[in-house]
Design goal:
This protein has about 300 residues and is mostly helical. The protein has one domain: Orthogonal Bundle (Lysozyme). It has 14 helices and 2 strands; from the N terminus they run H-H-H-H-E-E-H-H-H-H-H-H-H-H-H-H.
Amino acid sequence: MGVNSVRNTATVHSAIAVASNRTGIDFNYLLGQAHVESGLRTDARARTSSATGLYQFIDQSWLGVIKEHGAEHGMGWAADAIKQTSNGRYVVNDPATRRAILDLRNDPTASALMAAEHASDNKQSLENSLGRPATGTDLYMAHFLGLGGARSFLTAMESNPNRSGASMFPAAARANRNIFYNSSGQPRTLSQIYARFGNRLDSGASASGGTGLASATLTGGPSNAAFMPANFVQQTQSLENGGEVIFGTNAPEGDHAWVNSTLANLNTLREPMNPLRPTPDNARLAYMLLASLGA
């Protein structure tokens, strides 16, 4: 693995650790989801939709979650610029501001925070509907099918696990044949689809350096630090406190100087900007500064 790849992975892990610590959503789940969605690539783009970034948010989903939770994490300028029309669509009147908001999907900390907030909203709703604790796989079903679709899927699976998934979700099955059908063309059952997603989450978390099952029941709580690799816990605490990063003994050589020099550079970026009309570059830099200071 090259130095740039190692640094990118460290940056993504730190961003996910920050999001987990702030929202209580399990680190391993967020890591597994990022691996499945983008292979931990912050600049990943889908070929068939507007899905972009670490968690592959499409434009409308991103605008919606920023409107709902952006102000909680230093993105009030973005949340204030987003309006919802009478038909439920999210719009931003100024094209430059809209582009700046959408470009935040490529910032790992912004993307991880919004993915965690979205998962937290879905977790609460699913637990209220199902009457049981939600698992990581439940949350990924909500990500994949939407909250209403996930409720229908999970409720049906409880009573009839051998029901065909394609018969319940024909549109999703047409767009995702490899999920709803096996290699011989036979439709998968609800329980098979569910298990497939759980295995993908667990494999993704493991391949990306996770320390637990991404598909397991989510216990929540103010901090999931016990489930994070030690060096990423240290990075998170340092970033939250605006201090230096103290790496574990297994940290790649050079990361300490690289991360701390990055934070030092961010701390010099205090030039005034118009928060109502930011450029994509200064919007991203402003957000990175806020994130590094724990705002």
